Amino acid sequence: MPLTQSDIDGELAGIRTGYERARAAGAPAAHHPPRDFPPYRSSLLRHPKQPLVAVDGDPETVELSGPVFGRTDVTALDHDLTRQHAGEPLGERITVSGRLLDSAGRPVRGQLVELWQANASGRYAHQRDQHPAPLDPNFTGVGRVLTGDDGSYSFTTVKPGAYPWRNHENAWRPAHIHFSLFGSAFTQRLVTQMYFPGDPLLAYDPILQSVTDEAARARLVAAYDHSLSRPERSLGYRWDIVLDGPSATWTEEGR
């Protein structure tokens, strides 16, 4: 029989109960999930199963073949995904702003922040995405910006749609935006996802729910901020990204 959402819900409930019991017994908070999280089925197949391989010689030599980004590489239109084509994209226009902070709450300035996302219909502009939802010729779904002196970043885009995936029967991913943080070198890259408040699909998503600790999971959900909404233009969401410490934002690579 096909794997159903009820099956996944049962697995998630069991993992959550086990985690709560461990916490009650004194175990530390688990801000990052295991790389092989059973309800997220493909993680069982593609997580690393061998120990990391040490780089011979100077570790910095690895960075010589990686991309290098400077201020001249980021254009004035890169942060506004609604102005990158001849026409306006379809969908609910939003502004997503926040600050990149270190573990002490200090701003991390001059850092490259990238995002990518599905369009308002829930489809990526990528040849491997075969979801039968319409593509938008005026929306590519990628953007980037450098953080300011106060660690701030801001993107204007459209709210992505939910989309189906094949983790189990009738599986749907909630609306989300992927974020990439490069640090000062490609080998320092961190990747995470931002979600939207009040989305009914959050409770059913094994990727989000793999972050077992409730507080850590809540930090992946942006907050609506009316002060960021622009009159007759876009609704505003605030999402700060913390790189380390007890309030760190979950990243896909872990820490």
TrEMBL record:
It comes from Streptomyces enissocaesilis. InterPro entries: Intradiol_dOase_C, Intradiol_dOase_core, Intradiol_RC_Dioxygenase, PCDO_beta_N, Protocat_dOase_b. Keywords: Dioxygenase, Oxidoreductase. Residues 96-124 form the Intradiol ring-cleavage dioxygenases domain. It comes from the Bacteria. Belongs to the intradiol ring-cleavage dioxygenase family. PANTHER family: DIOXYGENASE, PUTATIVE (AFU_ORTHOLOGUE AFUA_2G02910)-RELATED, INTRADIOL RING-CLEAVAGE DIOXYGENASES DOMAIN-CONTAINING PROTEIN. This is Protocatechuate 3,4-dioxygenase subunit beta. Coiled coil: none annotated. NCBIfam families: protocat_beta (TIGR02422).
